[in-house]
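Practice problem: predict the structure.
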Amino acid sequence: IFTCVLKTKHILNSMKKILLLIGLILNINYSFSQKKFIGHLAYRMETRLTNNSEYPVTKYSYNMWFSEQEVWRAETPIKTNLPTLLAPLLMKDGMDSARAKKIIAEQGGYGSPYYLYDHFYLGTKQYETIKVWAKAMTEQFIAAQESSVIVDTLPAIEWQLTAESKMIDTLSCQKAIGKFRGRTYTAWYAKEIPVAVGPWKLHGLPGLIVEAEDSLGEVKFIFESLHIPVGTEPTIIDYSTLPRYTPAKFMAKQKEDREATIALFKSLQGGTEGLKESEETAKKNITRPIEIY
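Answer:
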């Protein structure tokens, strides 16, 4: 009986692989005329880049739609208590706390302060990060929090392919090691899905990258699910009118925005005591960069 169960499980996994390959072939052929994404990868990103010992791990969830030459990725919004965060700013204009929180909550304040998308073109290596601030932030917070696009050009990653393999879900994956912007990554890719893309900015392997981790254990990309063909196409927003920055110019702008925000909170709190407490909290939450140029 045990042998029969194992054989049945093996047959089911084999059938699932065959259906996956059939779906991939059909969708690749269809995508040439319709520009349709051929697959949908859901994955989780975990980072250990903060000094905060209470919350050492930061987790993000992503949905990634891909074709042979293009990727559209959407981050699942992080829940944030915006009414508590933004109420002091409204109170600056003489509004009482309860009223301020009510206004923000009515505008969907309990949600993400911004929405994050990524658009990657494999042929040109152009990687666009689209940061769109939520309505409550743009209308009730600070005008400096503008939606924007960071345009990056990715270098080629020199991967060392190995003979080591393992199963991830029903995918037979091969191991590769490569260096990208100061970190060494171990990646697992599926040759049966012949697209050279993967989570975040990782790319350039002879198969879909489904999992990866850096050598310090600070950055992880963890497989959750794969759908071929795609069940639901993504909604690609129109970001053509948003201001565009290089990574260096965007980092400089972020520094200016932080300084403006600190000055604003300082004026709201009527002195330096509250600001000092805020700065101590900020020190706990300092995040090291993923990309170490």
